[in-house]
């Protein structure tokens, strides 16, 4: 179980994932050595990692897709494991409700989508059917989800080391050194200029400039990865909403501001908006569906997939609510 100081540290890192140990210590009013030990312990216990969320256009030519998979009776576990191994699968989970397995996939090139969706995924043993929705626009992503635990004064201290990215405007001019740096940041969002310089064969000052440029341009957004269940959010659901066209933007914007929202996207398909949310318990989810969601205008239908087991999230394998041991991802 995570302690209250553990949760405070995670909340601080959500605000400023690359904040120095000294700044984290100042914000949390503890010693730097205490913060350092706590951070190392959470990483060694495979509970926490700070990674880099790479902007879609820097990773691939098209946007991701949501994929719902139905399986033959008794085959959901083996099918989910097989699907999670596909390199294009960002997220894979066993679910109950709309589907048996839910995937988020991102194909590097549009030309490869047909093969993945029409042949490779349906060809996995145990898969009985699939349905997908193309993401048109994401209104909020996991890097924006927060534990609201810290005071305004604590947040001000942390904001000193926040890098506010500009709106992405295409990355055709990304050079080879930047592309290698993007790969490093994707695996370790807290990598230092000295570490990056050694790995890339660059001077520390050059690596620092590249890191700052990459972050400010919004090519990579550092984010904290912790399974929601570790933070007390024991229920996770993917909710597909059908909405009248004139209300889509307003409903999506309202859902993106909801405390449960980890990922909200406008999609093309039979649904209009996908809300991936986390909830502490069944009562909290019931309140969302009946009190917060129901009054929103234009919603004509909803389908819910409740996550039973998370196998992979943002290309990292998960095991019993933690990161899989080294070598699995």
Short description:
This protein has about 325 residues and is α+β, with helices and mostly antiparallel strands. About 35% of the residues lie in helices and about 30% in strands. It has helices spanning about 5-15, 20-30, 30-45, 55-60, 75-85, 115-120, 150-160, 175-185, 195-200, 205-215, 250-255, 280-295, and strands spanning about 50-55, 65-70, 90-95, 100-105, 125-140, 220-225, 235-245, 260-270, 275-280, 300-315, 315-320, 320-325.
What do these coordinates show?
The chain has 329 residues and is α+β, with helices and mostly antiparallel strands. The chain is 35% helix and 28% strand. It is built from twelve helices and twelve strands. The chain has helices at 4-15, 21-28, 32-44, 56-59, 76-84, 113-120, 152-159, 176-187, 193-200, 204-216, 248-256, 282-293; strands at residues 49-54, 65-71, 89-97, 101-105, 127-140, 220-225, 235-243, 261-268, 273-279, 299-313, 316-319, 322-323. It has an eight-stranded antiparallel β-barrel with strand order 2-4-3-10-7-9-8-5. α2 (21-28) crosses α3 (32-44), α2 runs antiparallel to α7 and α9 packs across α10. The longest helix is centred in the first third of the chain and has 13 residues, at 32-44. It is globular.
């Amino acid at each position: 179980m995570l302690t209250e100081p553990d949760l405070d540290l995670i909340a601080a890192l959500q605000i400023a994932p690359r904040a120095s140990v000294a700044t984290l210590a100042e914000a949390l009013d503890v010693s730097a050595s205490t913060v350092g030990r706590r951070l190392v312990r959470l990483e060694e216990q495979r509970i926490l990692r700070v990674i880099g969320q790479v902007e879609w256009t820097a990773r691939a030519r098209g946007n991701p897709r949501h994929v719902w998979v139905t399986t033959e009776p008794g085959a959901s576990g083996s099918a989910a494991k097989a699907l999670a191994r596909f390199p294009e699968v960002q997220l894979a989970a066993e679910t109950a409700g709309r589907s048996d397995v839910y995937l988020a996939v991102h194909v590097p090139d549009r030309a490869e989508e047909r093969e993945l969706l029409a042949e490779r995924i349906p060809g996995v043993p145990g898969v009985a059917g699939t349905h997908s929705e193309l993401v048109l626009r994401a209104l909020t992503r996991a890097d924006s989800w927060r534990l609201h635990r810290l005071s305004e004064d604590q947040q001000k201290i942390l904001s000193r080391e926040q890098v506010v990215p500009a709106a992405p405007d295409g990355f055709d001019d990304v050079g080879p050194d930047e592309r290698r740096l993007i790969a490093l940041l994707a695996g370790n969002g807290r990598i230092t200029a000295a570490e990056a310089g050694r790995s890339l064969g660059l001077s520390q000052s050059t690596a620092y400039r590249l890191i700052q440029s990459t972050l400010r341009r919004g090519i990579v957004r550092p984010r904290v990865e912790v399974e929601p269940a570790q933070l007390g959010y024991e229920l996770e659901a993917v909710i597909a909403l059908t909405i009248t066209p004139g209300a889509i933007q307003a409903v999506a914007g309202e859902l993106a501001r909801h405390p449960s929202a980890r990922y909200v996207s406008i999609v093309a398909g039979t649904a209009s908006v996908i809300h991936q949310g986390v909830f502490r318990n069944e009562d909290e989810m019931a309140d969302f569906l009946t009190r917060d969601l129901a009054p929103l205008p234009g919603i004509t239908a909803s389908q819910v997939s409740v996550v039973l087991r998370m196998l992979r999230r943002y290309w990292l394998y998960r095991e019993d609510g933690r990161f899989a041991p080294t070598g699995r991802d």
